[in-house]
Every structure is written in C-alpha cells, then in structure tokens.
Amino acid sequence: MELRQLRYFAGLAATLHFSRAAHQLHITQPALSQAIRQLESQMGARLLDRTTRQVSLTPAGLRLAHDAERILAAVAASETAVRAIAASCPAAGPATRPGPE
Amino acid sequence: MELRQLRYFAGLAATLHFSRAAHQLHITQPALSQAIRQLESQMGARLLDRTTRQVSLTPAGLRLAHDAERILAAVAASETAVRAIAASCPAAGPATRPGPE
DNA sequence: GCTGTTTACGACGACCGTAATCATT
DNA sequence: AATGATTACGGTCGTCGTAAACAGC
C-alpha cells in the first residue's frame, strides 16, 4: 500500500465519480481506474461497487476511505511539523552552508 | 512523500546505521542512502547528521521518525481492518462470483 | 447515440543493484 | 588498512497518457 493509492482512493471516495476525481487528482481516468484496481488487488478486497455507471463504496471501501483521510491528514501534519522544526533550527536546514567566508 | 520513504526512514532511525537498516529493509545501502537523500530533498530539511561514520537524528528527523512509526502503524491497522471487513462481507470479496449455477 | 468506465499499448521516469570513490578510525 | 557512506551508471519495473472497446441510460 502506498500513499499515492490512498490519495487516489480518497479523491475517488469523495466524489464517487472517476472522471471528476481523476481531473481533481491531475491524472487521467484510465490511470485512476488502474490504480484503484491495483489497490483492490493488493488489499484482496473489493472497495467499490461499479455498475458501470454507478459507483458506490463497499463496507471495506468506506472504512478505507475514512482511514485514508486520517492517514493523509497525519502525513500532511507531520510534514508541516518537520518543516517548521527545520526552519526554526538553521543547523538542520537542507543546505545550510556555514562556509569558510 | 511516500510510505516507502517513511518505511526506510523509520528503519534507519531505529538503527542509525545504513548497512544494518538496509539489510533489514531488504535493500542495498546505496538504495537506502539515495532514498533518504531524496526524502530530505523533498522535505527541504536535513533529517540526519552524517559525519561519514556517525549517524544521528536532527530534531526534524526525530520528529519525523516518531510520526513515521505512528503513520505506518495506522496504515497497517487500516489494512487489517479492511481485510477483516471484506472477509466478513463475502459480497465485498475480491472475486466473489455468485455465479448463475 | 451518448456518457462514462475499462482494457490495450507504448513511452517516460523512478527505483534498485553493482561497482568505484571518498572519508574516518 | 579497514569500515562505512556516497556517487555513478545501467537495467528493470511501474506508472502515466493516448487510443480503442464495452456497457448502461
């Protein structure tokens, strides 16, 4: 499982629409479809009920959608915190060159 | 930021030793070094103090190490939960073929 | 017939492993 | 000199986009 998968699935779960979700995620519909299919395969569980025209979450999909948002929020929060710490600690900066001059 | 990065960083933070961490992660040292470097670049913050022979966490790295473990635990828990739900809901299985027969 | 998802296919890029280099003890 | 991390480089796999096929309203 990768964060990319969770981002895509969260976007799809929010809209329940492949086209719109793909557009919001800045990818094409086939790429999203493939990624979701791969996620389902890896999880060994069907996450969506696709009746070709109707997209709805299965119980497992609902759970994953909920968890995905929490996880993605935690990741974003951590990233913000780490950047803040680095910013307040010049010695921990990315390219803090004390330099001889 | 990807989970792969977090897994690698968590493993490295646990041992503070590239060779041992890489071995435990089933990759080579250069691959780990590259992944960590990439993570630092993307985060815009130095996560480790590498004095060539001595590896120690920066404040930002310490924070990320802590967050990474929490996030990875949440991911693992979610995966378990989703699989359990799918297992208890045959209709949500991966290849549950009701079949005409 | 049209909207919307899936499948097929080719190209680009990322990740990993091997080999060589450099630094520290 | 030996250990350990980095850099360079080539191969391979994954991911994405375009094009075509399929299904429901």
From TrEMBL, chains A, B:
Gene Ontology terms: cellular component: protein-DNA complex
Sequence ranges assigned to domain HTH lysR-type in this UniProt record: 1-58
Keywords: DNA-binding, Transcription, Transcription regulation
SUPFAM superfamilies tied to this protein: Winged helix' DNA-binding domain (SSF46785)
Entries under InterPro entries matching the protein: LysR_HTH_N, WH-like_DNA-bd_sf, WH_DNA-bd_sf
Domain of life from the UniProt record: Bacteria
Gene Ontology terms, MF aspect: DNA binding; DNA-binding transcription factor activity
Family statement: Belongs to the LysR transcriptional regulatory family.
Protein name: Regulatory helix-turn-helix LysR family protein
